[in-house]
Amino acid sequence: MFTIIRKFRLTRGSAVEVSRRVREGFVPLLQELPGFRGYYLLEGGPDVLISVRVFDSADEALASNEIAATWMRENVLEFVKGMPEVMAGNVLVAAPNE
Asked: How many domains does the chain have?
């Protein structure tokens, strides 16, 4: 598995609206992509959101970047301050609760 993590700083008070738009618009797009395993959006502090995308492979995860960038520009860019911090890498340990 391969994971991409992004930390976004938002304009004050916009996290609820951004979360709603992500849930209703972005998540359905991700769910259609090959290799998609999961998506999480976390509170990272006041006016900070952290997104986690998990795919089967690095190629599939990195292919999702173009879709994510386009969706962000068209749907939530007005709420984002600056460029996100980005981390990505192969999952070394996974412990699903089965």
From this structure: 1
Give me the CATH number covering residue 18.
3.30.70.100
Q: Is the dihedral of CA 95, 85, 64, 68 positive or negative?
A: positive
Starting from the edge strand earliest in sequence, which strands make up the sheet with 36-43, in order?
A: 36-43, 48-55, 2-9, 85-90
The closest of 36, 51, 41, 50 to 1, measured between CA atoms, is 36
pLDDT at 97: 82
> What's the predicted TM-score (pTM) here?
0.91
Q: Determine the structural domain holding residue 55 and report its residue range.
A: 2-89
Looking at the domain assignment, is residue 72 inside a domain?
yes
Return the residue matching tokens 């209703």: 24
pLDDT at residue 96, rounded to an integer: 83
Helix segments in the chain, DSSP class H:
15-21, 27-31, 58-75
Q: How many CB atoms lie within 10 A of CB 97?
A: 3
Please report whether residue 52 resides in a domain. Answer: yes
